[in-house]
Amino acid sequence: MEEEKIIQEKWSNLLANAITGQNEINPNYTEILKELSSLEVTILDKLFDATSQETDYKKRKSMQFSKEKIIEIFKISDEKSDLVIENLYRLNLCQPPASHGGVAIGKYPIMIRTNDFFEFTTFGYYFVKACKWDQSGVFLFPIHS
């Protein structure tokens, strides 16, 4: 996988950020990067670009994204999008949506297990930030904020 240009770029950025101290580097980031495809890296970049525009942490955490938008933008099948989203869940880079201000058990929001909508985790946000050098890019607009 490291042969692919986008993956090579992420490795270079991660190393540069570790050397310069520009971004905090979690030791798990190298293992996670090894488990991502170039498509998954590109999707994560788009999620980061959209969420980084929001300065309020709580609002950024609750931004939700649509599987249908992923299918439309990247021209992939429903099945392929499920595989991508499930891998991002497995790596804790994304998560199923939680009820924000809606259904809760006590003070804890209920999470719905679905691939149709998903959220970017704080861990995912900082992972992508650690793998970026240039913060510019095209935006994948959230469906809710």
- Spatially, the strands of the biggest sheet line up as 1-5-2
Q: Helix- and strand-based class?
A: mainly alpha
Q: Look up the CATH topology of the domain at 39-127.
A: Arc Repressor Mutant, subunit A
CATH class of the domain at 39-127: Mainly Alpha
Polypeptide structure, described:
- With 145 residues, the chain is mainly alpha-helical.
- The chain has a domain at 39-127: Arc Repressor Mutant, subunit A (Orthogonal Bundle), CATH 1.10.10.
- Helices cover 49% and strands 9% of the residues.
- The protein contains seven helices and five strands; from the N terminus they run H-H-H-H-E-H-H-E-E-E-E-H.
- It has helices at 5-20, 29-34, 38-51, 57-61, 67-74, 78-90, 122-130, and strands at residues 64-66, 94-95, 104-105, 108-109, 117-120.
- The strands form two sheets. A three-stranded antiparallel sheet has the order 1-5-2. The chain has a two-stranded antiparallel sheet with strand order 3-4.
- The termini are far apart.
- Residues 135-141 have low confidence and may be disordered.
Summarize the structure.
With 145 residues, the protein is mostly helical. The protein is 49% helix and 9% strand. The chain has a domain at 39-127: Winged helix-like DNA-binding domain superfamily/Winged helix DNA-binding domain (Arc Repressor Mutant, subunit A, Orthogonal Bundle), CATH 1.10.10.
